[in-house]
């Protein structure tokens, strides 16, 4: 709910600022936002699939699987985000042209916005997995903080400042900057959450009756 609500607020703020600069800037930001919804949707879908897996493993006390699932998913999201970002960045111009006739200013702003967000796409993918890890482990505070960071706490405070200082360039780059800032929130959240997950050494030191027995060994 908070993620969706803040996405609407962020879009309204960004469009208002872009419209104050020029109609071409507004059009470039609008087209780039629609284009980037595709890779963002893939990352969100991947994270949504990871969440119940890590939640089931956590509930079953298979802590080694929790850690393994997170490592695999974090690397996959970061690498996959990098690959998608590279492809979209390379073909940013032709993709924008598919949305209709474009002026030179619209094309430049749209390409800049897309390519900067593509650079931050691996970070966005990694943070999304950390967000879903918090949700899967029942850490509501961490999940809320990270789900609202990208278009809330890391976006809203800087959008007017960047538009004032950099004009159209600031409006085009604000979402990428917010993605990078969200990493600064995700790292301490991940450290705190990982302390809750017993390591292999911790499991070995538990009493036998406290260690879950895999079904195949019953």
Number of strands: 0
Structural class: mainly alpha
Q: What is the straight-line distance between the termini?
A: 43 Å
Which of globular, elongated, flat, extended, rod-shaped describes the shape? elongated
Please give the radius of gyration in angstroms.
Answer: 20 Å
**SSE run:** HHHHHHHHHHH
Q: How much is the average pLDDT?
A: 88
Largest beta-sheet details: none
Low-pLDDT residue intervals, each spanning 5 or more residues: 213-218
**Number of H- or I-type helical stretches:** 11
Percent helix: over 70%
Proportion of residues in extended strands: under 5%
Task: Describe the protein in words.
The protein contains 11 helices and no strands. By secondary structure, it is mainly alpha-helical. The longest helix has 37 residues, at 23-59.
Condensed summary:
It contains 11 helices and no strands. The protein has helices at residues 2-21, 23-59, 63-90, 92-97, 104-119, 121-136, 140-147, 149-153, 156-166, 168-194, 200-204. The protein is elongated, with a radius of gyration of 20 Å.
